[in-house]
Design brief:
The chain has 295 residues and is α/β, with parallel strands linked by helices. It has helices spanning 13-21, 74-77, 99-106, 124-128, 143-150, 170-187, 203-208, 214-230, 239-242, 265-276; strands at 2-7, 28-31, 43-44, 51-56, 93-97, 115-118, 132-135, 139-142, 154-158, 192-196, 234-236. Helices cover 31% and strands 16% of the residues. Helix 6 packs parallel to helix 8.
Length: 295
């Protein structure tokens, strides 16, 4: 009877000796060139017992078509669900965005005391160019100055819904978005920057604003995901929560205009998503009973 055992290149001489000590007395050992002294015919004759062949082995060779390589896209880049943080997690956070972010203030959404920098109609160009923008809470201000003074530990960005209403606006938007991230990285050292995907809209809204059509937004979001990864930011895919099976904003989460979120279900779903997709840290304030909670 022949018994075959595989040994890789990492086996050292003492490993082989240890193996040999476990074999029954009278066993004849045959070693190949990868496991012995470079002589494929090298044998240790011990009186003609069971033969044990020490063979070199490696990873199995896969045939073409038997495997696939996953593309490096938003589904890979996006932050996965990671337990649930308490609302106090946002106490040292800031939210930078357009009219969707303004809703946090207008509807008095509880975000644990986060700084809301929401400006209706604003895109990344206004941030880069230090334009005066209007906060519904504080009045006219320069967003970069407000953020630099506050020095938040986390920054959540959602821009695009107000500026991508027409076709052909994506390239300019993405160019300014990259410049904005560079400026924010310099102004806020140590800050965890979250780049949120542009959420879908309802079909009737997309018909009126073709730049917000599902296929257009998917393309822009793919580029946003890669931009976030290149700039060392965390990418949050809001479509996981807001999109239906057709890539449209879920009706139950939409405001009547089909673009913004409803005060209850819409913003509630957004906050829940953010709480479930915080970048992991042992110091995060986890909700009791959730994954990673000590209680």
């Amino acid at each position: 009877r022949s018994v075959s055992r595989g040994l890789g290149d990492v086996y050292k001489r003492q490993d082989i000796y240890a193996l040999l000590e476990t074999l029954p007395a009278g066993t004849r050992v045959m070693a190949d060139s990868a496991t012995a002294n470079g002589d494929s015919s090298a044998t240790a004759n011990a009186g003609g017992g069971t033969a044990v062949t020490l063979e070199q082995f490696g990873p199995a060779r896969q045939t073409a078509g038997a495997y696939h390589v996953k593309a490096y896209d938003s589904s890979v880049i996006r932050q996965p669900g990671c337990g649930q943080v308490d609302l106090s997690y946002f106490s040292d956070a800031a939210f930078l965005g357009d009219s969707l972010t303004v809703g946090f203030s207008d509807y008095s959404i509880n975000l644990g005391g986060a700084l809301i920098c929401g400006y209706t109609g604003v895109g990344p160009d206004a941030i880069v160019n230090r334009s005066a923008v209007k906060s519904s809470v504080r009045g006219s201000e320069v967003a970069m100055d407000v953020l630099t003074a506050a020095q938040p530990k986390k920054l959540y960005i959602l821009l695009g819904t107000n500026t991508l209403t027409t076709l052909g606006a994506a390239d300019r938007f993405l160019a300014y978005y990259g410049q904005m991230l560079d400026q924010l990285r310099q102004a806020l050292p140590g800050c965890v920057i979250y780049v949120q995907s542009i959420p879908p809209v309802r079909p009737q809204a997309a018909a009126e604003k073709p730049g917000l059509a599902s296929d257009v937004l998917r393309s822009v979001n793919e580029q946003l995901a890669k931009l976030a990864a290149d700039k060392g930011c965390v990418y949050l895919d809001l479509w996981e929560t807001f999109a239906d099976e057709n890539g449209n904003l879920k009706e139950m989460l939409a405001a009547p205009d089909g673009v913004h979120f409803s005060a209850g279900n819409g913003y509630g779903a957004w906050v829940t998503y953010l709480r479930n997709h915080a970048k992991y840290s042992a110091s995060n304030s986890w909700t009791m009973g959730s994954a990673y909670s000590a209680e």
